[in-house]
Amino acid sequence: MDKKLQLDTILAHAGIKTDEATGDLTTPLHFSTTYQHPEFGKSTGYDYTSTKNPTRSSLEKALAAIEHADYALATSSGMSAIVLAFSVFPVGSKVLAVRDLYGGSFRWFHQVEQEGRFHFTYANTEEELLAALTEDIDVVYLETPTNPLMLKFDIAAIAEKAHAKGTKVIVDNTFYTPIYQRPLENGADLVLHSETKYLGGHNDVLAGALMTSDKEIYENLFYNLNTTGAVLSPFDSYLLLRGLKTLFLRMERSTKNAQAVAAFLKDSPAVKEVLYPGKGGMVSFKVKDEAVIPQLLNTLKVFTFAESLGGVESLITYPATQTHADIPADVRKSYGLTDDLLRLSIGIEDSQDLITDLKFALEV
């Protein structure tokens, strides 16, 4: 796919014109797990589906194109993408990570640290992170904006200092997507996504992705993925290709709605703080009285009380008992993730319906 095209064109054309034999406009589903060799010593390029599958290959080409990467791999979940990303670093590597991050990431980081595989240091702010970025750090791990406090980190500034010290930079770009941020262009070495979220966009597929332009990193990732087998299925690859086609439109609408919802929340007497980075569909807010949270969640009709994010339907999540429950309460509170915080994933509904729903629930 031509990276010189505009991003919305690349997305709309994701997966088209890939089957020269039939002329199919959209990428066909290839369910076969094995592939016939034309003759001894020859291959079609496909041997076994855990190594390579035509439908998944089409998706990976599109994923590389939207992040302006040379290579991409599609995995079975967002967490499998994170595990795969760290598989290219040796045991004992020292990782400097943002403190505010997805609870599932923290859970795995804590587990592998307990096992002695990696050592993690956490930073609350960009200033803290840059100060902690010393010669012995092997990997910097960023979410930006962070989940759920919406803190932003300057990828370019961090990558410049990291590379001067021989440190690799990994960025989870799930929240902003390539619509608002392409970390590789800012110096990151590796980008990952939970494709379950915005890239899929319809709450009907579990998937992850890794993108890089570093050939050595890619070859190691490919080898490890083929070895461990956490690849994305053909049908899920097909769903992802379908979801990508509307990503630009969905993010545009989600942002417009989120801006309206954030403005409403800032004026609500029941809300003491709104956390919104200005674009994207993710908004967090803190209520003045956390005792109202159960009733608020039970009152909402348009918002759905559920985990996850990035779909066309608006969701509300209570991180303390859902997405970030595995982070000890004292740790959460130490960096601002308090029990009065709610996280919104704003969908593509009418913004006034979303505001009316929140207004009524906050006033009950």
TrEMBL record:
CDD domains: CGS_like. Its cofactor is pyridoxal 5'-phosphate. Keywords: Pyridoxal phosphate, Transferase. It catalyses: L-homocysteine + H2O = 2-oxobutanoate + hydrogen sulfide + NH4(+) + H(+); L-methionine + H2O = methanethiol + 2-oxobutanoate + NH4(+). GO terms for biological process: transsulfuration. The modification N6-(pyridoxal phosphate)lysine is found at residue 197. This is homocysteine desulfhydrase.
